[in-house]
Amino acid sequence: MSSNSIFVIDGYATSQKIIIGLGTTYKVYLKSADEKIKLNVQELLVGQYNLTQAVLKPEKILAVGKEYELVIENLGDLESQVTRYNDSTKQKEKIKWTASNFIDTVSPNWTSKPEFTSSSYDMYGCGPATFANFTFAATDNSEFLIKTTVKNKSTGKETTFYLQAVDQLISVGHGMCAGAFDFQDGDKFEVAFSLFDASGNITHWTGDKLEFKRPT
After folding, report:
1. How far is CA 180 from the centre of its chain?
2. Within 10 A of 90 (CB to CB), how many other CB atoms are there?
3. Alpha helices in the chain (DSSP H)
4. Are 181 and 159 in contact, with CB atoms under 8 Å apart?
5. Distance CA 14, CA 45 (A)
6. How far apart are CA 93 and CA 82, in angstroms?
7. Which residues contact 173 (CB under 8 A, 6 or more apart)?
8. Average pLDDT, the chain
9. How far apart are the C-alpha atoms of 208 and 25, rounded to whole Å?
10. Helices (DSSP H) in 51-192: which residue ranges?
11. Cα first-last separation, the chain
């Protein structure tokens, strides 16, 4: 990771309580062998379907070559520890990174702006998975997310969430159990996308928003 990395954490269902309490009830920081670096909450984004998200920024630049571990204190019975699943080892591991000798200050670029391609509505045992899908292409010096803002044209309500694109596809909606966007209260929507990279550099949306109908 770059020395000026930012961090985005999602909380699902009961774990949303942790995300909302980061920096207050639940202290959050990066720990190396000889220091702790506080993570400050830059944004708190509440999704529409059992999902909440926080954008965190270290209070200072990370030291090159140091390994840092993500720590969240006071979890109690909510979580035993902060881990992620390793597909290769089939084990849960502590979340760690090593800071590289690189400070990223360059914003991402669209090489092909998003275009609506399809919608889907699939009913499962616990509820539907519903998405409006957009294809795109972009380049950057590091990994990036898609800052997505959806407006319900019936109610006027806007919701913003950072989405991870897969194979140049942005899927806007929610899965069977959770997701950023719900289309229950309207038939027509519009969306704007911005590029947001792993160091917090952003390329804002310009031009008209893209319109789409509720997936059915």
Report:
1. 10
2. 7
3. 16-20
4. yes
5. 16
6. 8
7. 129, 130, 131, 132, 179, 180, 181, 182, 183, 215
8. 94
9. 41
10. none
11. 40
What the block records as the tokens of 76 is 């109690």
CA distance 160 to 157: 10
The answer to pTM > 0.85 is: yes
As a whole number of angstroms, the distance between CA 169 and CA 189 comes to: 18
- The CA dihedral of 63, 64, 65, 67, to the nearest 10 degrees, is 40
Residues 6+ apart with CB under 8 A from 93: 83, 84, 85, 86
pLDDT digits (tens, 9 = 90+) for 91-140: 888 899 999 999 999 999 999 999 999 999 999 877 899 999 999 999 99
CA dist., res. 49 & res. 152, Å (int): 15
- Determine which helix (DSSP H) or strand (DSSP E) holds 35, and give its type and residue range: none
Token pair listed for 128: 């539907």
Contact (Cβ atoms closer than 8 angstroms) between residue 130 and residue 123: no
